[in-house]
């Protein structure tokens, strides 16, 4: 029986053949991956919260919120793969367990099922948290001249800022 190998959030892939030579140093790639791992954790936590709220929303805005939450979690789900694949392209393993996400995420999960208004408030805060995490990662990517990561993060920022605006509009 082989022992499972533990990997940290920024564990580099062992060199097996060709070294990665994309014009970004290993040190810079590791720093970018550290930030992308936090971004992936926040994104996954927000995805899970949004899906949970989709299942459990009640009240007069049920249909509106149920559909809106589904649109948002479906889009978020697709983005998770792109983020993880960018981490892999930079030569590191992507975090992929609940324990890793819990230790990396800046988003606190609710302890119970909130009412519809609180769900919206929590999702506004969650989208804003993801945007802040994206900005920190974007700064690191820009410093290393990592255009593909910067592009990914810029696109994600647009989505999360728009989601926060739309959700916030429901509270006014």
From TrEMBL:
PROSITE patterns: DPS_2
TM spans (from-to): none
Alphabetized UniProt keyword annotations: DNA-binding
CDD domains per record: DPS
Domain Ferritin/DPS: 34-172
UniProt family annotation: Belongs to the Dps family.
GO molecular function, one term: DNA binding
Originating species: Paracandidimonas soli
Protein name, as recorded: Starvation-inducible DNA-binding protein
């Amino acid at each position: 029986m082989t022992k499972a190998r533990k990997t940290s959030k920024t564990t580099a892939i062992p060199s097996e053949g060709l070294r990665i030579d994309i014009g970004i140093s290993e040190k810079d790639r590791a720093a970018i991956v550290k930030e992308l791992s936090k971004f992936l954790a926040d994104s996954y936590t927000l995805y899970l919260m949004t899906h949970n709220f989709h299942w459990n929303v009640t009240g007069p805005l049920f249909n509106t919120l149920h559909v809106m939450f589904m649109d948002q979690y479906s889009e978020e789900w697709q983005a998770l793969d792109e983020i993880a694949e960018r981490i892999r392209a930079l030569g590191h393993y992507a975090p992929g367990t609940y324990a890793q996400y819990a230790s990396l995420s800046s988003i606190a999960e609710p302890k119970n099922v909130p009412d519809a208004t609180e769900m919206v408030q929590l999702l506004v805060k969650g989208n804003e948290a993801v945007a802040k995490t994206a900005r920190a990662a974007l700064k690191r990517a820009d410093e290393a001249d990592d255009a593909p990561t910067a592009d990914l993060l810029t696109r994600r920022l647009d989505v999360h800022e728009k989601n926060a605006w739309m959700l916030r509009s429901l509270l006014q």
